[in-house]
Amino acid sequence: RSKGEIYGAEYLFNNALSEYLLAKKCFEAAGSEYYLSFSNYDIGRVYLSLQDFEMAEEHLKMALETNNDGTNKELITDILYNLLDTYTSIPEYDKLVEIIEQYDDYLKRAPEIYYLYKAIYYATLNDSNSAIANIALAEENNCDTSSLDYTKYIVYSILGKSDEALQYIEKSVKRQNAQILQSLEASVLNMQVEQSIREKLEIEMRGKYEKRMYIFIMVIISIVLLCFTYIKIVRKKAEIEILKSQVEGILSDLDKQS
Description:
11 helices
């Protein structure tokens, strides 16, 4: 699952999906309902990023069903907002309205996003005043500008105000493209730094290996020289013993003759 998070952060969604699907198989084999809900949530998020909305909805709803006891409110809130993203992207506003009406208490936990979807909610009911009022509330709760512009585009599109909608979709696309480029540049920089560190480590390891090999070779040479010296000493001692024996024999013969 951690590798999936890393791939997702780098926009490598297919790689992330493979890791999350593998994690799900492991949790299924272990019979872990708790972690299965996280896996379905992760898989749903990735399918949403890949714009496979049918699969995104399927896995997000499975994740929601396994958390219907309400113990993990933070996870439920995240699942719900990803479902709202899915229904906004399709679009299926009837399902969006259903989610907001059924889970309003959970959604309020994230006010900076909550009012954006409430604005869409009121726009689908043709209540333009409430829709605009909720956009203002989102701004007051420090909603990011890109999401705000995109929501304004959706709201004005639903309300039939095409000129305003076009204005905000252009702004939203420009900001999103800038954010993606910035993230990709950061990813490339991180890869370059990692490559540089890897090369330095390889050089350092190669240096250590060469140093160890040099020490090993010197030890071997020293052992060979010691062995050679020892053999010479042994041979010299043998020659001295033979010479000593010969001298003693000669002296013994001389004593006998005299």
